[in-house]
Amino acid sequence: MPYTADKPGSTPDPEALRARIPGWGSDLDPADRPAFPREQPGIETGAHWELPPQQSGAAGRERSIEHERVTPVFGTAQPLHGISGRIRRFAYDRFSEGQTAHWLLLVAGDRVDAMTAHVVSLFSKRPDDPITESGVTGEVAHRPIASRVGRGRIDLKHAWMDPILVVGPWVVAAVLGVKLVRAVFLPASKRGK
Length: 193
What we know:
Blueprint: H1 14-20, H2 82-94, H3 100-122, H4 130-133, H5 136-141, H6 162-185, H7 188-191
């Protein structure tokens, strides 16, 4: 059973591990392991439970398929919602945490959530400001070229893409917004001009 106060079962024989896993045992010397004193049997852990009490509200929470149940304690500040929540739920329900698809879906859910927040902000009292919030003004004020060239920075290889990735979505959204406004408010006879 996962999440118990007890230590896991007995460790397999070192020779069996060495035969099965190439390079196993390189840290076998206790002097090389900072956690060695805590690994001794009989040391009190301070746990006053066999299994920690389960936090309420676990039903419907995201749980990896490789775990039997939700962890005893979990965050509730950002519940899954909307399309991004469906994408994240699909990632947890379908793929193991060891699979790339799981993490790519979580990133996709995050991007959908960010785009949704940008769209919602357009209809609020204080919409997002892509110029100041993207750091463009800070780039101009703090020697953008001199701070990168000749310093061995690895991100110089993709620096040309950064303006496209930061400003591009805003330009696409503006073009689509103009087209939408024209389609809704302009009569069909004036659209072609």
